[in-house]
Design brief:
Two copies of one chain form a homodimer. The first copy, chain A, is of the alpha/beta class and 413 residues long. Chain A has three domains: 2-171, 3-Layer(aba) Sandwich (Molybdenum Cofactor Biosythetic Enzyme, Chain A); 179-254, 2-Layer Sandwich (Alpha-Beta Plaits), CATH 3.30.70; 259-412, Alpha-Beta Complex (Maf protein), CATH 3.90.950.20. The first copy, chain A, contains 16 helices and 17 strands. Chain A has helices at residues 10-13, 21-31, 46-59, 77-84, 93-106, 112-115, 153-171, 189-195, 197-201, 229-247, 259-270, 284-290, 308-313, 319-325, 330-344, 391-412; strands spanning 2-8, 35-42, 62-66, 89-91, 119-121, 125-127, 136-141, 144-149, 176-184, 207-214, 217-227, 251-254, 274-278, 299-305, 348-354, 369-376, 379-386. In chain A, strand 13, helix 12 (284-290) and strand 14 (299-305) form a beta-alpha-beta unit. The two termini of chain A are 49 Å apart.
């Protein structure tokens, strides 16, 4: 089972809005075993729509189209689909009266433009859209299904989840697709690939491995297509069981896990608390924890000690250390972590101090040098990392590395 | 001039990541007058890549490809492009030595996989990627240009801005496109549109107005296509001259300006300093300032007082206020701003305390309620804002609103 996703609309094409619909649709289709052949984004132009939908009809089982269903002149999807399927536009009474009621409820005139929302190609099955004016439409030709949905994300989402997915499951005898993703931290893509090469090479050909890197983690995804779900899940689990010993402490968790969510779980479980003292990461560690709902249970706060006076006066870093070793030093990182732990009265304190760049580097401490420390009830540990030249990436990497340092400590405590 | 954008990679196709690259590329191409015919997303599969790139080569002047250039086995873009252009992979010495140096600097082994990043099709022009290991590649056939870029967003961005756009301008005789963007804050799109409707309706048809909203600002862009540059620039300036009085204090600046960069300029000019006390924004205000290089000149730091104990013990918020009015209150916001100003010894202190959601709301203080304050040498001002239900959006909006409150104070001082 293969599907294409076609988004129609100049606003996506020219980059004015980012297309989130197609990722959501792909995820929903993937969950029921329909794999995606292609996504297309095209403008509101007759020839482009005819070409893209016609091509997809030939090569795929299912084509999902979003967008181009608004009441204004530039939205022509319906007309072009009627042409493609040799049909004419007729009024769908149910839609007409629903839109009429919606307009009345919102005090908007039920004018010609709004009335036109009830026009649909005669040959399609209308799928009622309870959240908006443009209905979904289901077309079939020679066993191929073409579905047209409104582009408004929450209207599309409701139609996909409540109508389209159940109908597709019923219409086709769907085989399963299984994905599982392991989150890792601390090993670069090339090193990890070399480290697990033997395991990767022994994977059966029907299991597909993908490396998905970002500055804050490296994800490893195993996928199986066209399979019996339970068998494939068991098989993927077995292969990951073999992989985990190779990953060791680099393994953070499954699916949406992050270093900060892994730390959060351990702290909550143990009833322990955390505060952060940040120089070069400038609040990013705090923002990562507090972005998660429920952070108040274990994350008490922190100090952004960007200026040395704040390191000294708020965190109690000694002037001697600042003068003798510089702000970017092991001594200062340790005093920052210890200072914020004491100040906030938490179980742990973590810290970062480094040179985010692009300026400020020296031969001894080039841009990307970051000292970090974790203060614990049993003493303080510290390390230095060396990243690259790009400020935003250095900040992201250093924040994740400091959180990971605490994760490793908690794992082994 | 027409271009296709092709993103390669299973992670986009299956919906695991949202494609932001193609919107960015479309925007950059649009700015130099290249319109987009189609965007494609395809998987890491030879036949799909050959088909999509081959089709684009026939129908477009320019094809931009991103992704599929990693060192691991699932990334096959290079091999397939070599096949399509009837070329073989050879080692590019400059890339080889650059990657070697990058790995050495980060302490990563320069193994076979990393070395393979220097292999490129013999027929292409290599475009050095100074931010990552995979170089850009420029192919030509019968006057058509195909460009392959890494999928990592900041690597793609740097290559597009610094190399590809200048080379495309030189290679093709591009007609001029003129854009100018005014940054505004504090007025919703629909309200602003109503407020400036008369001005908008009197715009000549060859000037195109776009509203570009985000949680942290609303941008207004005026564009002119296929024009004589200097005339168009003068004309756009004149129309904006008429608009600015209508925008009033909502006008923040031009192009890449943000509320924080506008505040930064004013503080640097006056030799003044700032610290932030953040509860619900959890470090985001600090992260916004410290994301800008040179922040140490005026941004001294801050306190993330997520737990009430930190508000009390570090910032000096009184227990009476916390108990009588709650943490989300005008009294606490004011004491937080005053406390962080005193603690850090800065000219100004700003604060936020609110309910980011999705839980924690009450009938009197629903999710999205945020109190904020600015402490100054002449006293403290405070206000409350009411945002929506989505945690990440509330955090972003509240951080920008607090910074904007300081911006307005500085404007009128």
């Amino acid at each position: 089972m293969r599907a294409d996703i076609i988004t129609i609309g100049d606003e996506i094409l020219i980059g004015q809005i980012i297309d989130t619909n197609s990722a959501r649709i792909a995820t929903l289709l993937g969950e029921v075993g329909i794999s995606i052949r292609r996504k297309f984004s095209i403008g509101d132009r007759r020839d482009e729509i005819l070409d893209a939908v016609g091509n997809s009809l030939e090569l795929c089982d299912v084509t999902i189209i979003t967008g181009g269903l608004g009441p204004t002149k530039d939205d022509i999807t319906k007309k072009v689909l009627a042409e493609l399927f040799g049909s004419k536009l007729i009024r769908d009474d149910e839609t007409y009266h629903r839109v009429e009621r919606m307009m009345a409820a919102r005090g908007i005139e039920f004018n010609e433009l709004n009335q036109s929302q009830a026009l649909v190609p005669e040959c399609c099955t209308v799928i009622p859209n309870l959240k908006g004016t443009a209905p979904g439409m289901w077309f079939e030709r020679n066993g191929h299904v073409v579905i047209s949905l409104p582009g408004v994300p929450f209207e599309m989402e409701a139609l996909m989840v409540e109508e389209i997915i159940p109908r597709l499951k019923e219409r086709f005898n769907l085989s399963a697709v299984v994905h599982r993703t392991a989150i890792t931290f601390g090993m670069a893509e090339s090193m990890l690939a070399a480290h697990i090469a033997e395991w990767e090479e022994s994977l059966p050909t029907h299991l597909h491995l993908a490396y998905l890197p970002s500055p804050s983690q490296l994800r490893l995804r195993l996928s199986a297509y066209d399979v019996e779900r339970e068998t494939a899940e068991r098989e993927i689990d077995e292969w990951f069981d073999q992989l985990l010993p190779l990953l060791g402490d680099h393994f953070v968790g499954w699916e949406d896990e992050t270093v900060q969510s892994a730390v959060a779980k351990m702290l909550i479980e143990r009833g322990e608390t955390l505060a952060a003292a940040e120089s070069c990461t400038g609040g990013t560690i705090s923002a990562k924890f507090t972005a998660m709902s429920g952070a108040s249970e274990y994350y008490w706060g922190g100090v952004v000690s960007y200026d040395n006076s704040v390191k000294e006066n708020v965190l109690g870093v000694s002037r001697e250390n600042l003068e003798n070793y510089g702000a970017v030093s092991e001594q200062v990182a340790r005093q920052m972590a210890e200072g914020v732990r004491r100040l906030c009265g938490t179980t742990y304190g973590i810290s970062t101090t480094g040179i985010a760049g692009p300026t400020g580097g020296t031969p001894e401490k080039p841009v990307g040098t970051v000292w970090m420390a974790v203060a614990t009830p049993d003493g303080t540990i510290s390390k230095v990392v060396q990243h690259g030249k790009i400020r935003a990436v250095n900040i992201e990497r250093a924040a994740s590395a400091a959180i990971n340092m605490l994760r490793l400590y908690l794992l082994h405590k």
